[in-house]
Amino acid sequence: MQYDQLLGQYEELLKIADSAFDQIKSQHQECVKCEVKCADCCHAIFGLFIIEAIHLRHYYEQFSDAEKEEILKRASEADKQLADLNEKMEALAENPEAQVLLMSKERIRCPLLNDDQQCMLYENRPHTCRVYGIPTIAGGQVHTCEKSDFKEDVNYPVYNMAGAHKKMYKMSTELMEQAGFKDSEKASLLISVSKAVQTSLEDLINEDF
């Protein structure tokens, strides 16, 4: 399967995200609290579109065997925690607000975060990681990092996360079509980082998550 062009499009989106982060940080340095070894975003829960998972898996393959073993050990632990969270979410199925609150408070360590509190794949980290410390908007709601100092009663520039999601969904749909899948619903599935590092490129396309 040829997906180099789509991965190139995704990497262009990453550059846009980096540029947005840098621009907002330069305008509001007092509000952005990101710093080396903060790692707050490395415990947030989010999913990857298939295009993101394949991009991550591509760079994961370049790690040494020892590094992979280290990452996979943490991925296994993250899977256990995600399974526990899923059970809690199911128990709150009739209370969406409680589910949202639970998700916002839950902290699960990313398998790529090493013991020195630094990302092992920083230069090729996912899209969400790149804009975590600035205001983003999705679903009509503005989100900010809890450690940031953005004020609720002040208007700030925001990064259009919803627009980025649409682009990644489109890339994922095209990728699935290249692989012979016509059902675009699969392109909307979100994959955990732990699942992405544990799954081969071929299985990322063919499995249901």
Question: How would you characterize this protein structure?
Answer:
With 209 residues, this protein is mainly α. It has one domain. It has 8 helices and 3 strands. The protein has a 3-stranded mixed β-sheet.
Largest sheet data:
3 strands, mixed
List SSEs in N-to-C order: HHHHHEEEHHH
Total of domains: 1
Number of strands: 3
Give the helix tally. Answer: 8
Distance between the termini: 21 Å
Mean pLDDT across all amino acids: 92
Strand order of the largest sheet: 2-1-3
Structural class by SSE content: mainly alpha
Strand content: under 5%
- Computed CA radius of gyration, to the nearest angstrom: 17 Å
Shape from CA axes? globular
**How much helix, percentage-wise, in residues?**
40-55%
Any low-confidence stretches, pLDDT <50, length ≥5?
none
Write the layout of secondary structure elements.
Blueprint: H1 4-27, H2 50-60, H3 65-91, H4 96-105, H5 127-130, E1 136-138, E2 141-143, E3 159-160, H6 161-178, H7 193-198, H8 201-206
Parallel strand pairs: 1-3
Antiparallel strand pairs: 1-2
Helix pairs in contact: 1-6
Q: Main traits of this protein?
A:
4% strand; 8 helices; mainly alpha; 3 strands; single chain
Brief overview, please?
With 209 residues, the protein is mainly alpha-helical.
